[in-house]
Amino acid sequence: MNEAKMDALEKAQVLIEALPYIQRFNRKIIVVKYGGSAMVDEELKKQVIQDVTLLKLVGFKPIIVHGGGKEISRWVEKSGMEPEFINGLRKTDAQTMEIAEMVLNRVNKSLVQKVQELGVLSIGISGKDGGLLKVKKKLSDGQDIGYVGEITDVNPKILYDLLEKDFLPIVCPTGLDDNYETYNINADDAACAIARAVSAEKLAFLTDIEGVYKDPGDASTLISELTVSEAHALISDGYIGGGMLPKLNNCIDAIENGVSRVHILDGRIAHCLLLEIFTNKGIGTAILGDTEPRFYQG
Hints:
By secondary structure, this protein is of the alpha/beta class. It is built from nine helices and 14 strands. It is globular. The two termini are 29 Å apart. 41% of the residues are buried.
């Protein structure tokens, strides 16, 4: 068999492998938290948008929730201020909040543009639109860190309306409190809250790590699938720390509140979403409920 025929057969095999996943998740909602290096590198950004657009075109109902921390820090510095973080959360005074909202809206519309360049209609919104995200002031170990919001309520009606009209919603993480003040929201928290509210079939985090490790210093200990009980055990046994701890807790919370499966993916890998969702092996870590069937076959 010549090389061209072998190449064609390999492509056909990829499509056949993807078929059961396309069937299972057809017309189901998937929330993608988009952040990290994949938001900074233009080629990675293009690939992520291609992945999400493909998910839309094969029958998924994707929602993108994006961050913008690195870009916000860059503009804060350009404004002559020094970015300040307390326990991993950005201290956000009124001026920083103004910069953050400007940057997040700019990022939001650039993502809308990239989706529409691929022939899919998209609408960018914030958590302020349609009362999507209601917040209260978030404290960090009792410290006031300014206009940083903790989500108290999600009204997903605007998302359902957009999905019903065949739009791809792209959400930037700002919200309003009871006094209609604007607050910045951690994008992981926003993605989890939205995924819970819409009972998403999947929630995918694009990060700058390969997934969850039993030993962060040993790449061979990457865990492909992790039940909620196993995740609780890793945390209680002290294996999980640093920035992974709040992320894994968010994943557990999402699963315990109706999300079927959560994926932690390395957004630095080209087309990581497609590789994780449409292949038997996957490339990141999938967190699932204790009674959910495992997908990956070694």
